[in-house]
Specification:
Elements: H1 3-11, E1 24-27, E2 37-40, E3 70-76, H2 87-98, E4 104-113, E5 120-129, H3 133-136, H4 149-154, E6 161-164, E7 167-168, E8 171-178, E9 182-183, E10 185-188, E11 192-198, E12 201-215, E13 221-224, E14 246-247, E15 252-267, E16 274-283, E17 287-292, H5 321-324
Parallel strand pairs: 8-17
Antiparallel strand pairs: 1-2, 3-4, 4-5, 6-10, 7-8, 9-14, 11-12, 12-13, 12-15, 15-16, 15-17
């Protein structure tokens, strides 16, 4: 048993067994990062290859590494699997989320030492909430340059902007569409570079968006690893699906909210990029989707001859919200 596994076994005494599980991802063909993502080795009794669950031994009899010389951080499981594209990436996030209770995320444990402050991934995994002490109270040696979770979350990480595919001209804070269409919006997001100072050392921080949490205002929610994008110009809005669209079944004005989840890394001097434990969730400025239905009537004259006729004054039969301001 490695020192990392001993540490994990000790942690298992202070948190529910369901929160730290001896599992790992593997693909159908056995090569990590290819094919559909599945879990294997669930609830390993021996702890071999899992590193996350208690193996039944009394951890008090095992020499636990001192936090002053060794420490651990928790990184989102799918973060370093950049070779995943399209649906594979969402499958990885969905499979990871399915392992945890609501309000928790699936993390892989990274082990650090004074000799290797950048750390190495271990087989250990854990379901933890954003406020878990294991994340926010990570205990690195005081003289080691590091960026804590709370320091990362306190940085001014810019929020993503909600972009509507059909915005109201001159009022881009509103989108307009018809009921039962696939209303498309996406997140204008990017990787952000920020500077901070730790122990008198200038540290460069990289914040990378890894997850987008949508609330469409009609009771529908969606979480995806894709920022989304515009559809082709000739796409049918009733049929063409995107990663971030939503179908509204009723007319009305719906507030759309977005939270972008960032993972962090930092570097200083000639160090490589060192992962920051946990994630930072940054809410966006909400926008409004105005959803309408189409109504047609037979009329006896056109609006040039009869400007007072039905729907001649405006295509809207009631005042739209952007004209009420």
């Amino acid at each position: 048993m490695t020192s990392s596994q001993l540490m994990i076994a000790a942690l298992a005494l202070t948190i529910p067994l369901s929160a730290v599980v001896g599992t790992s991802f593997a693909s159908l063909n056995g090569a990590a990062g290819e094919g559909e993502w599945l879990f294997e080795g669930e609830d390993s009794e021996s702890g071999d290859g899992g590193g996350g669950g208690s193996n039944g031994e009394n951890s008090a009899s095992n020499p636990v590494p001192e936090r002053a010389t060794e420490w651990e951080t928790y990184v989102p499981y799918c973060r370093d699997r950049s070779n995943l594209t399209g649906e594979e990436s969402d499958d990885c996030h969905a499979s990871a989320s399915a392992r945890c209770d609501e309000g928790e995320s699936f993390y892989q444990i990274r082990h650090h030492t004074r000799e290797n402050p950048e750390g190495s991934l271990t087989p250990g995994v854990a379901c933890l909430s954003d406020s878990s002490p294991l994340i926010v109270d990570a205990d690195a040696p005081e003289e080691v340059v590091t960026v804590t979770t709370n320091e990362f979350r306190s940085l001014p990480i810019p929020s993503s902007e909600i972009v509507f595919e059909s915005p109201v001209e001159g009022h881009e804070e509103y989108g307009i569409a018809l009921i039962r269409q696939r209303v498309n919006q996406w997140a204008d997001s990017q990787v952000h570079m920020l500077d901070t100072t730790v122990l008198g050392t200038v540290v460069e921080v990289r914040a990378t968006p890894i997850e987008y949490q949508w609330n469409y205002g009609d009771g529908n929610h969606r979480t995806t690893s894709h920022a989304g994008d515009a559809r082709p110009d000739d796409a049918d809005p009733y049929e063409y699906r995107t990663y971030t669209d939503n179908i509204y079944e009723e007319t009305g004005n719906y507030e759309v909210n977005l939270t972008t989840v960032y993972t962090g890394e930092f570097r200083y001097g000639d160090s490589g990029w060192i992962p920051i434990s946990g994630v930072a969730s940054v809410p966006s400025e909400p926008k409004i989707n105005s959803i309408w239905k189409r109504e047609t009537r037979n009329v006896s004259a056109d609006c040039i001859e009869h400007p007072e006729g039905w729907a001649c004054d405006s295509p809207f039969l009631k005042t739209p919200p952007w004209e009420e301001e």
